[in-house]
Amino acid sequence: MTVGVSSRADADELRYLNGTFAELCRIDSPSGRERACADRVVAELRALGVSAVEDDAAASAGSECGNLLARIPAARERAAGDRPGDAAPRRGVLLCAHLDTVPALAPIEPVLVDGWWENANEAILGADNKAAVAVILALARHVHRVGSPVDLELLFTVCEETALAGARAFDASQLTSDFGYVFDHASPIGEVVLDSPTHFRIEAEFRGAAAHAGIRPEQGRSAIFAAARAISAMHVGRLDDATTVNVGTIEGGSAMNVVPERCSVLAEVRGLRAERAEEVVAEVLDRMHEAANLPECECDVEIAVQKMFSGFHLGESRPAVRAASAALRACGFEPAPIVSGGASDANALISQGHEVVNLANGTERNHEPGERVSVEALERMLDVAVALLDAAAQPAASAAR
Fold this sequence. Notes:
Elements: H1 11-26, H2 35-46, E1 52-54, H3 58-61, E2 68-72, E3 92-98, E4 110-113, E5 116-119, H4 127-146, E6 151-157, H5 165-169, E7 179-185, E8 191-196, E9 198-207, H6 223-233, E10 237-240, E11 243-252, E12 262-271, H7 274-292, E13 300-309, E14 312-313, H8 319-330, E15 336-339, H9 345-351, E16 356-360, E17 372-374, H10 375-393
Parallel strand pairs: 3-6, 3-7, 7-16, 8-15
Antiparallel strand pairs: 1-2, 2-6, 4-5, 5-17, 8-14, 8-16, 9-12, 9-13, 10-11, 11-12
Helix pairs in contact: 1-4, 4-10, 6-7, 8-10
């Protein structure tokens, strides 16, 4: 598929993009506290005459607000390339970004340093994923000025950083677009995520017996010791090219001089091959049960396993991938298919049957102090978003559906 870019953002839209990005970053919106950011998005869309509907995902996602869905109809009935006299097919594209960030350990004050947006304080910037939110809002302003060649659906989710909770609670059956995109991979623009892992959460509670650590230690049974034995018996980190295991938190005990009665462990398994991931989960559970039953431990253990989201593989011939490749090339980027160990709202939406591709957004060091994104990357992301609409409008974009 070959496509050109029918229009580009003008100088005012680029100023709006950068200014809005900085203002969004200043809005503190850790997972569960997205209301102020959501209100800002609603206000920006309302100024364009676009209404956003909030769903009822707040309670199940653990947020103070739900996901937002807005629609902007195509500016013309007939897509370029349709034959005169034919009924024009209505093509649609979904663009999705999440409103939440990981917690900021200091106030966020965006500053420009040598062409890069950074936080003046030692904390995240919030470019994950407010760079994408700003790009989508700037795109909405752009199509308000020049029109869109396709129907647009704009989805802003909550609690993405907490295992995609908002997108998992969203009812994707209401979407009418042919396919969609999220801009949520912190790597150079041009990378296209074709593989993403299945994710399991493992929560274990070890229970022993409390006792005075100096007077009656032999009467106690240390839950922390049992948990430690379990963890030491596990294989953690990267097990192979497709599977990882991590023990994220361990908490227990009440005082230095008390044999700890309780200890909780939170772990995860990610795998690009679902069957292999399930095997590793079973191995982790075996190590936990074995440690609890050791003569030197003699603890009880309760374990809860939850499949947080499913992985996916997208072939390069899929319509959304072909349109993304064409759009990237039109903007001067060579598409680079990649495998990611992370997940995005694409995982949740694909699980519901809606084809969505995760595209790199040019940000760097997400989730870290020192997170940054260049002005050039922001503006080129907007170029790519405009080109995606042109690519999706081509008949070839829907030929493989």
